[in-house]
Every structure is written in structure tokens, then in C-alpha cells.
From TrEMBL:
One BP annotation, GO: cobalamin transport
Signal keyword on record: yes
Keywords assigned: Signal
GO molecular function: cobalamin binding
Domain Transcobalamin-like C-terminal: 79-157
Name of the protein this chain belongs to: Hypp3194 protein
Signal sequence, start to end: 1-23
Transmembrane regions listed in the UniProt entry: none
Entries under Pfam families matching the protein: DUF4430
Amino acid sequence: MMLKFSILVVCLLVANLCHEVQGQGNFKKRVREELKNQKARIDRLESAVFGAGGATVTMKIENSLVPESRQYNVSVPAGNTVFQMMVAATMQFSDFTFRDTYYPSLASHFIDSINGLAGSTADKTFWRFEDGNGAAFDRGVDLINVYNGDVIVFRFTSWATPATEHP
């Protein structure tokens, strides 16, 4: 999302710049100066829209049914949602994938599968979404923001057995 926003802003600013400096002397020098100014404007806009500073968030993928886990340290702007963090992880790690379904009535995505492992109604399995202390979130992945040092756990589990808190 941030990359698309940045590209759009750059395209609009370059088009505006070319229009402004067309026909003026010292074209190359003026373009360089103006691009430098526009870069500073983009940085300020991104900070205002996406939050200042970056965050490294630990995302753990755990399987309660078969002892297996994977951990990713994902870099995102502070304040991004967990869903945005997951999208960023697909770009930062070639071995991380996920599928989701968006539910407008909940204003959030439901995580259908992670790294090819999908929940199943027949098997009574799903991806539980927790904080670093093992407590399940009461909102969807689009409604939780992450900050530097956060730990987010996706635990594959079954609703056929009682949920237990994990340390």
C-alpha cells in the first residue's frame, strides 16, 4: 500500500515539475533541485499517513496439532495493521504465503491459510490469532495495529478441543 501511494505521488509530482520547468533555462539543475524538494515532501506525507518510524514485529506461525513452527521478523511502518504486516511479510520472505477472505460486515480479513496449511470445517481447524502472551485477539487482522517489538502469533488449532492459553 505504501509503495503504491509513493509511486502515485512521485508520478504526480514529476508531471507537475515538468510542466513548471518547461521552457526555463538550467533545466537539469532545476529538475534535480525540485526532485530533492519533492522527495522531502513525500517523506513528510508518508510519515503523516503511515506513522513515523519503522517497526520490527515478530510474527510466529505455530501448529498446535503437529509440533511445527516458523518465525519471521517483519519490518513495517509503526502503526500498520496486522494484515498490512502479513502482506509485507510475503514481500520480505519467499517462504511466507497466506490466503484470506474479506468480510465487509466485519471490516476485516479472515485468514484462510498460512504457508499452504488451511483451516477446515470438516476437521474443525482454524488459524487462531494471538498476542505474544497467547491471548486471542477479539478483533480481526485489519483492526489491530503493530508497533516495534510486538509479537503476533498465528496458531493453527482445532475448536474440537478446548483452547488453552500458551506462554
